[in-house]
């Protein structure tokens, strides 16, 4: 309550943008809308989210924990409409830079929860391997243009067991591109080293988007083969040209494009790019059966220092870049967008630690999907409409003109709700159960049986006495 008490009620500016956004979020709920919106409001208050029931203790909560569980179990959300809303809420002055990555909702002990799979986890291990059982989610977020940790989540999707994360990411990109509208520059999507650059290139060819993917520093690529002179040797033409080894500088030709600048954070930045390189792959073939040659641009990035880690020697980063128009390469934009890709890690931490995204012990994956969508608009994208108000309307904002962090903006949004300056949309149903309200379905899967009572192994003493007398 320290944040709430420190804010004066008369110091807030116009919250019309926030009111409109809340009304549009409410329209995305097609069943149990009021209870679902109460959960969103509960997430916007300074309450420790130890589970779904904890949100019924939030200031201003109008329903009990039973309605909260029923909303997660039987509520309905128009996800396509919500995706359109989140894409429209992306700030216009941001560049068209995006990041895609996966994170896991750990459910290692939930043996009755279906559709769990094994996913990579950096700190948890199972049987000596860095994997955990749970539900894997693929997030697509828009990156901020400034030096802050703000992102705008645009889409989230659960990766089913047996699905390919590269294909899921490509589908998310193809679905979000029409929602972005007219862009001043092609959209750029940054990926970390866990993705396959060749598969992403094939899946997104012709989509009108740029991709930048980190590759290992021991990869080997090949240039185009030289043209066979007339009257030369007979036989099949060469498919691979000169070898390019990332670990052997003697195999590097003169870069096609180079950039050397001085940055305030990273010091001396050197970026070099080589066009028309391709790796060897055995997945995609031509109609005649020959292996396809998939070309792209290889980028070498090296900085002189790291922010906050001046005693650590920076590593050289190798990136794979591809676009339908190779002439649209902007090295200054590409290397900055890739480094800002790490803001999605802050989004994951903010969603899990501050919003309690993976805290509830939900049984079914459908409930997890519904809870994920409730947390997604509450993520930085939901707090973004209050960002301008938080800067201009909060007392003391003149002392710090820097953009507040998502966590700081969350506290200021909570103060808005606490003082009732952000009214709720018109409710469809009054608080409390309606006379003809349907009972929420049993969230337990069909194969989960309720616990049975222990049967008596022998008759009671009184029964034995009666039988003997008979």
From TrEMBL:
Pfam (any one): DDE_5
Residue segments, region Disordered: 224-247, 420-470
Source superkingdom: Bacteria
Transposase IS701-like DDE domain ranges (all copies): 24-274
Biased composition (Basic and acidic residues): 460-470
InterPro entries: IS701-like_DDE_dom (IPR038721), RNaseH-like_sf (IPR012337)
SUPFAM superfamilies xrefs: Ribonuclease H-like
Protein name stated in the entry: Transposase
Protein's organism: Paractinoplanes pyxinae
């Amino acid at each position: 309550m320290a944040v709430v008490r420190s804010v004066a009620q008369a110091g807030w500016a116009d919250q019309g943008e926030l009111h409109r956004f809340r009304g549009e979020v409410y329209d995305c709920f097609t069943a149990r809308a009021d209870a679902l919106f109460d959960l969103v409001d509960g997430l916007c208050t300074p309450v420790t989210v130890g589970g779904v029931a904890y949100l019924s203790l939030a200031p201003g909560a109008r329903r009990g924990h039973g309605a909260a569980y029923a909303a997660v179990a039987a509520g309905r959300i128009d996800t396509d409409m919500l995706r359109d809303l989140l894409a429209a809420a992306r700030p216009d002055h941001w560049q068209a830079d995006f990041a895609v990555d996966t994170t896991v909702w750990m459910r290692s002990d939930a043996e009755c929860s279906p559709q769990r799979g094994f996913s990579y986890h950096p700190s948890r291990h199972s049987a000596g391997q860095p994997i955990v059982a749970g539900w894997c989610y693929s997030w697509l977020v828009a990156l901020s243009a400034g030096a802050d940790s703000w992102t705008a989540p645009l889409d989230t999707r659960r990766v089913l067991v047996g699905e390919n994360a590269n294909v899921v990411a490509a589908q998310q990109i193809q679905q979000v591109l029409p929602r972005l509208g007219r862009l001043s520059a092609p959209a750029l999507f940054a990926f970390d080293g866990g993705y396959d650059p060749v598969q992403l290139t094939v899946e997104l060819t012709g989509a009108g988007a740029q991709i930048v993917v980190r590759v290992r520093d021991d990869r080997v690529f090949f240039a185009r083969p030289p043209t066979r002179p007339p009257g030369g040797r007979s036989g099949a033409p060469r498919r691979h040209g000169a070898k390019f080894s990332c670990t052997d500088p003697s195999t590097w030709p003169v870069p096609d494009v180079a950039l050397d600048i001085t940055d305030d954070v990273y010091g001396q930045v050197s970026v070099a790019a080589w066009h028309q390189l391709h790796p060897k792959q055995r997945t995609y073939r031509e109609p005649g059966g020959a292996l396809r040659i998939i070309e792209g641009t290889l980028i070498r990035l090296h900085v002189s220092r790291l922010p906050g880690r001046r005693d650590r020697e920076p590593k050289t980063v190798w990136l794979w870049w591809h676009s339908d128009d190779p002439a649209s390469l902007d090295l200054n934009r590409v290397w900055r967008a890739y480094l800002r890709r790490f803001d999605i890690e802050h989004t994951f931490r903010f969603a899990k630690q501050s919003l309690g995204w993976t805290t509830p012990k939900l049984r079914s994956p459908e409930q997890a999907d519904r809870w994920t969508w409730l947390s997604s608009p509450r993520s930085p994208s939901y707090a973004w409409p209050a960002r301008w108000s938080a800067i201009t309307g909060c007392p003391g904002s003149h002392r710090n003109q820097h953009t507040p962090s998502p966590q700081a903006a969350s506290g200021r949004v909570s103060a808005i709700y606490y003082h009732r300056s952000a009214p709720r949309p018109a409710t469809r149903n009054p608080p409390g159960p309606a006379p003809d309200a349907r009972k929420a379905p049993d969230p337990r899967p069909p194969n989960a049986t309720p616990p049975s009572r222990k049967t008596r192994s022998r008759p009671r003493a009184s029964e034995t006495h009666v039988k003997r007398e008979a």
